[in-house]
Amino acid sequence: MARDPSTAQSPAPQHLKAVALKLFAERGIDGVTVRQIAEAAGQKNHAAITYHFGSKEALIRQLVVDGAQAIDARRNAALDRAKAAGGPHSVLEVMEILVETSIDPDPPSWGECYNRFVVGLQLSNRALFMDALEGRWNSGYQRCLEEVRRLMAHCPSDLLNQRLVFMGGAIGGILAGRETELSDRSREHPMWSHPETLPRVARALASIIEG
Question: Which Gene Ontology terms cover its molecular function (predicted)?
Answer without folding.
Answer: DNA-binding transcription factor activity; transcription cis-regulatory region binding
